Amino acid sequence: MLGSPDGARFATGELSACLPVHGRWGLPGETVAAANETGEHSAMAASTLLTTDDVAPRDRAPAWCEWIHSHFGGLESDLYGDTEFDGRMAASRAGDVILTKLEANRHRVLRSPHLARTSDTAYLKIVAPWQGEACVEQQNRQASARNGGWVIYDTTGSYAIANPQRVEHLIVMLPKEQMEERGVRLGELMARHVGGASGISRVALETMRTTYQELPHMSDEAARGAGELIMQLVRLSLLELAGQESGVTQREALKDRIRGYVARHLRDPQLSIDGIARALNCSRRHLYNAFAGDEDTLAGYIQRQRLMACVRELREDAQGTRPITEIALSWGFTNLSHFSRVFRDHAGMSPSEFRHRAV
């Protein structure tokens, strides 16, 4: 637990890194494990815990954003415009696998293409909620998970994750080079709901959860073995996902085509359901069915993509060199009153307020 000195450093952004110490993540000056008389470290090695409880309420949101950026290798955070925030993270290592329990109010994270290109280490990352929902978007695909499921994505590419309510997640980071399988195209499996309700994906989920909970009671050797087991179970889950041939897989393939078309024509104000159906040579019913069961309809997906594009441009142009109206029109919005209303629903504030806070 952070005491008040570390809490103050965290709040001002000075506490910007988590250092790997003896197979666990430790903070500068924090005792990670007690040494016994033989100089060996106890199997009861403590995880790092970062919490906003010891940070002044007004400083919690910026402190959290700074820690997310540092721990996960360069992520931008958005708190839906909320000014009150609390969260905590505990991180441990199981060999080369990093496991983090995250509890926090609603928030979103974004890894831009620039940050993805400058990353030092390549990881596949898994989010497995205990509470709340995680919505992952990568490569024009979307997948969401709640308790009992998990989604995998690639930190070497850009992505966005929405957590629209308070969440409790297990986040697992796996070295990408160790997850490569001959004949399996990992890129096609990213931003997929792998499963977790049954079969090997459930075994993988339960192993990840149990490993995280029991790591404080493991020796370093046992922790490394548990990490290797997690990687093997995730490999098997991905192989199973890659080999599935079902209506669900066909629906995902159509959804990928739809999202690709939307991405290429997002700036076109004439983009429509009928136009997409003609371009992809399928019926409106097939388009609607592709998004059946998703949080967004196809029309809702198009609107959200446009809003996210406007959010990115407003953040990048915080000095206001481009008028908000010009940005909205450039991304296919034609009714500015409608744009202002849906932007507020999406970001929790008006476009001008968002730009002002981004400065």
What does this molecule look like?
The protein is of the alpha+beta class and 359 residues long. The chain has 2 domains: 4-243, Jelly Rolls, CATH 2.60.120; 247-358, Homeodomain-like (Arc Repressor Mutant, subunit A, Orthogonal Bundle). It has 12 helices and 14 strands. The strands form 3 sheets. It has a 7-stranded antiparallel sheet with strand order 3-5-6-13-8-11-14, covered by helices on one side. Strands 4-7-12-9-10 form a 5-stranded antiparallel sheet. A two-stranded antiparallel ribbon has the order 1-2. A hairpin with a 2-residue loop joins strand 1 (19-21) and strand 2 (24-26). Helix 4 (199-214) runs antiparallel to helix 5 (220-243). It is globular. The two termini are 32 Å apart. Residues 1-46 have low confidence and may be disordered.
Topology:
Elements: H1 4-11, E1 19-21, E2 24-26, E3 48-51, H2 60-71, E4 76-78, E5 87-94, E6 97-104, E7 107-111, H3 113-117, E8 123-131, E9 134-138, E10 141-145, E11 150-154, E12 159-163, E13 167-175, E14 192-195, H4 199-214, H5 220-243, H6 247-264, H7 273-280, H8 284-290, H9 298-316, H10 324-330, H11 336-347, H12 351-358
Antiparallel strand pairs: 1-2, 3-5, 4-7, 5-6, 6-13, 7-12, 8-11, 8-13, 9-10, 9-12, 11-14
Helix pairs in contact: 4-5, 9-12
